[in-house]
Design a protein that fits this description.
Elements: E1 6-11, E2 16-22, E3 27-31, H1 45-48, E4 53-57, H2 79-92, E5 98-103, H3 105-116, E6 121-127, H4 132-137, H5 141-146, H6 149-152, H7 159-166, H8 168-179, H9 188-198, H10 201-214, H11 217-224, E7 234-239, H12 243-247, H13 250-257, E8 261-266, H14 272-275, H15 277-289
Parallel strand pairs: 3-4, 3-5, 5-6, 6-7, 7-8
Antiparallel strand pairs: 1-2, 2-4
Helix pairs in contact: 2-3, 7-10, 8-9
Amino acid sequence: MLEGFDEREIDVGDVRIHARVRGMGPPLLLLHGYPQTHLCWHKIAPELARRFTVVLTDLRGYGDSSKPFGAPDHSTYSKRAMARDQVEAMRALGFETFQLVGHDRGGRVSHRLMLDHPGVVSRWAVLDIAPTLATFERTNQAFATANSHWFFLIQPYDFPERLIGADPEYYLRWKLGNWMQSKDAIPEEVMGEYLRCFRQPEAIHASCEDYRAAAGIDLEYDRADLDRKVTAPLLALWGMRGRMAKELDILALWRERVEQVQGHGLDCGHFLQEEKPKDVLEALLGFFAS
């Protein structure tokens, strides 16, 4: 699925980050979302590697990266900690600066990375998210119904962990199936890898902690930075049939937090790079080449 990509295990201090690397040219880091792994880029990463040195990583708590137990304040899985992991991983690979793409949770890590590490990333893209603080502030019944996992996963340990752990395969397949419009977008081989990683009790806990942090300590960090705007240009893409676009004006919300924003919707659900890989590839190549 990712033939020719070298595997790396990168020690970044308190965790180890699993990575795949291939290509020549400017470094480009791609960050996955929930409940997936770096494999979500398998349809576009080989083509990107023709023009970039592509780095695919598993976020802490996901895939084959370390999955430490969460701290009481959930800071172990704050986007600040997760962003620092990625900066250190890229530095360990020899890249002090790079370009960045983040889908879903990876996009939230990307936003925090841009705020905490200005100057490291020259251009960045996010797929199917709006800023976390703005999303919570605009939550209504329709959004909460469509995105019930936001409020289920943040319940105290170990309530969601036990319920998901009772049948992780059903949970994973139900989530992925309900978030995409193209039901055959994820091959069974890829689904099997997602399941291999997700069904681990440590991974289920880590993903809950990711969401607990987003509803707590991450909001504290975001409020502290409300007077700051990211200066690096941003490309925002989203699925027009997805849940975010139905409730939020994604471009308008990003323009509140970033000085230069462009973007558009695609005719798909949440998993853009797997449902509409050609469209995502075209948009990314055009943006990062400009």
